[in-house]
Structures are given as structure tokens and as C-alpha cells.
Design brief:
With 172 residues, the chain is mostly beta strands. Helix content is 10%, strand content 45%. This is Cupin domain-containing protein.
């Protein structure tokens, strides 16, 4: 078995030389988003041979996504804590800690964080959508200077999605 160093341990290579990933809290690429939430890209398509991308949200009250449809990937929301109101098609439901929502591509959906904070993971299959957060978010070092909160531009996020060719159709 071929191994490579990872931290203090050696982990085996997977097929095609892909390494397992051990990501702890705070690991990954962080960006400021929307209402001042912290988004951390934990896994990218490049790290998973395109299989998936994973993003963690330390979301704030009012964080939301306008209605949209993914045409390229399925999406899974895993709520660790807090309350997130999700609208899927014509159905709206409050998702709290421990909830999981599976969104097959082609289904219109949106969400709104209704608690002071919410902790959630978003997994997309196949990977690639995580580029949206890397490109559309603002570097953490910008802090208070980042145009988040009331200065956030939904139009800018639409432009980023279009530029990256993410196949998103925005609702009304």
C-alpha cells in the first residue's frame, strides 16, 4: 500500500493517487458572505476527483438564498444547529439541528436563517459549485471592510454564478 504524509500520521492514497482528507474546525478556505456569515469551503472537486464539494456555513440571522435551480448538481443541506426555513417547490418547512434536506437538481429552492446563528453544511454532487463561494465571497482579512450585511449585492452573486458557468437559473 502506498502512503503519504498527512499531518502527524500517514494515510493511504485512494484510487488515482487521491489522498483522504481530515479537516478540523476552521480548516478550509474561508470567505465572508451575505449577512456577515462565515463560509468555509471544506472539500473541492479537485480534492475529490470531481465527486463532490463541501461547504460549511457559520450563518447569521437573515442569511438567505433567493429562489434558484441547480442544473448541474444535486445538493444536500445538513443542519447542525439553529433554524433554517427552506422552501422547496411549493413546500416550506423549518429545519433545525439534525435535519437533512436532499435537493435533486432541477428543483427550485431557497432558504432563510431564522435563528440568531445556524451551523450548516452544504454538500454538492458532483463537485464544482463550491467555486461559487470561493469567487463570490470576500477574504476574511477584509473584516468590516467587506461589503456584507446591508451592502451585500445579490446581483453580484448572479454575475459570479454566470461567470463560472454554474448552470443556475434564478427564480423571481
Amino acid at each position: 500500500m502506498t502512503t503519504a504524509p498527512y499531518g502527524r500520521e500517514e494515510l493511504p492514497f485512494g484510487e488515482d493517487g487521491v489522498l483522504p482528507a481530515v479537516l478540523k474546525p476552521g480548516d478550509g478556505v474561508q470567505r465572508l458572505w451575505g449577512k456577515g456569515s462565515l463560509v468555509t469551503v471544506k472539500l473541492t472537486a479537485e480534492q475529490t476527483r470531481g465527486a463532490m464539494g463541501m461547504t460549511h456555513f457559520a450563518a447569521k440571522l437573515g442569511e438567505r438564498s433567493p429562489s434558484h435551480i441547480h442544473t448541474l448538481e444535486d445538493e444536500i443541506f445538513m443542519i447542525g444547529s439553529g433554524g433554517v426555513r427552506a422552501t422547496v417547490g411549493d413546500r416550506t418547512e423549518l429545519l433545525e439541528g439534525g435535519s437533512v434536506l436532499f435537493l435533486p437538481r432541477g428543483i427550485p429552492h431557497s432558504y432563510l436563517v431564522e435563528s440568531e446563528t445556524a451551523d450548516l453544511y452544504v454538500l454538492t454532487c458532483p463537485g464544482g459549485f463550491e467555486r461559487f463561494f470561493l469567487e463570490g465571497g470576500y477574504p476574511v482579512h477584509m473584516g468590516a471592510d467587506a461589503p456584507v450585511g446591508d451592502r451585500w449585492s445579490v446581483e453580484r452573486t448572479h454575475e459570479v454564478a454566470e461567470k463560472l458557468g454554474l448552470g443556475i437559473t434564478w427564480g423571481t
